[in-house]
């Protein structure tokens, strides 16, 4: 549960930005948030995916009681993640800001989007530092502190965001730019507090014996990247599919794009909750693998599937039953609400597929099996999902609903293929004597 809450924190930041802008700045600026979040989430998950390369390695070494190796891995991961953060900042700042003018979006939307994207791009650097220490602590089973930091970070983000967007205490209203500033401040504070916690807590003394930034070596860095890079690609293939969908929807109209932002924000909340279950599955799988306890490994993995199936079934019912009520969290624009309500019914249908595919990736990540799952995600989203969405939504003129039908079929494909991969790998392990 702590991992679920801390994972949710990343999505709540963008959810809060959307809610604040939707209520205090209007539909055009909400569409700008939709466009930026669609582009930035691709960058965000690349960075987060790289940082996830540390977790299964830490869990495996802890299972083997090889504590000194944990500090060495942390040293390498921290340097890698800082370098990746700087690279992604430069990529967004000099790349995406130039591309955004040529995506066929409304000029008004683009004008509001640029300053917001600028602040978000810089926030990726402190976020990568936070992720390093978070994944280290969670890989060792210490999960609560990251949860508390995420909760307080989001509270600060909401309060500061409202003050800056609305204009309070003598500050001029900043609109969408205000939530960009509040998100940057939030992530700097989170990185600072998480770092202080790890270095000052007695829980980590035994693991930090060999932590030195001078102990950077090629072998350990490659071990982290061999897991982290494919994981980054897995996340990017899925998120980029939804980003591509947002761009396609933006060519239909600003109202449709705002409605997409409302629905996808709600769906991303449940996805990140499922992603927390997947992260727990990664840790348990890696720890049992390090102990050569293959029977418990398979049992805990199956339990993760059961847990996410129950949870996502509940959220599916909530989306379908409250499809006209939930959009009011973001906006009072009836045109946006009516379209978003239709999309939430589609989201209700793909909840189970979204949850089971992310848990499948989490279990396989704990096994160190990342290359084939990466190919599966690419095929599911970019060979099947987006082309089908384009065919239904644009070519056959089914609009935003057609694009979402394509995404749903992509999620179904990923879910089924990853489940069969999980069955094959874990049955092989159980059949081999420890």
From TrEMBL:
<keyword id="KW-0406">Ion transport</keyword>
<feature type="transmembrane region" description="Helical">
    <location>
        <begin position="78"/>
        <end position="100"/>
    </location>
</feature>
<dbReference type="GO" id="GO:0042910">
    <property type="term" value="F:xenobiotic transmembrane transporter activity"/>
</dbReference>
<feature type="transmembrane region" description="Helical">
    <location>
        <begin position="151"/>
        <end position="172"/>
    </location>
</feature>
<keyword id="KW-1133">Transmembrane helix</keyword>
<dbReference type="Pfam" id="PF01554">
    <property type="entry name" value="MatE"/>
</dbReference>
<dbReference type="GO" id="GO:0015297">
    <property type="term" value="F:antiporter activity"/>
</dbReference>
<protein>
    <recommendedName>
        <fullName>Multidrug-efflux transporter</fullName>
    </recommendedName>
</protein>
<dbReference type="GO" id="GO:0005886">
    <property type="term" value="C:plasma membrane"/>
</dbReference>
<keyword id="KW-0812">Transmembrane</keyword>
<dbReference type="InterPro" id="IPR002528">
    <property type="entry name" value="MATE_fam"/>
</dbReference>
<dbReference type="InterPro" id="IPR050222">
    <property type="entry name" value="MATE_MdtK"/>
</dbReference>
<keyword id="KW-0050">Antiport</keyword>
<keyword id="KW-1003">Cell membrane</keyword>
<feature type="transmembrane region" description="Helical">
    <location>
        <begin position="112"/>
        <end position="130"/>
    </location>
</feature>
<dbReference type="InterPro" id="IPR048279">
    <property type="entry name" value="MdtK-like"/>
</dbReference>
<feature type="transmembrane region" description="Helical">
    <location>
        <begin position="308"/>
        <end position="329"/>
    </location>
</feature>
<keyword id="KW-0472">Membrane</keyword>
<dbReference type="GO" id="GO:0006811">
    <property type="term" value="P:monoatomic ion transport"/>
</dbReference>
<feature type="transmembrane region" description="Helical">
    <location>
        <begin position="335"/>
        <end position="353"/>
    </location>
</feature>
<feature type="transmembrane region" description="Helical">
    <location>
        <begin position="402"/>
        <end position="420"/>
    </location>
</feature>
<feature type="transmembrane region" description="Helical">
    <location>
        <begin position="374"/>
        <end position="396"/>
    </location>
</feature>
<feature type="transmembrane region" description="Helical">
    <location>
        <begin position="39"/>
        <end position="58"/>
    </location>
</feature>
<feature type="transmembrane region" description="Helical">
    <location>
        <begin position="178"/>
        <end position="199"/>
    </location>
</feature>
<keyword id="KW-0813">Transport</keyword>
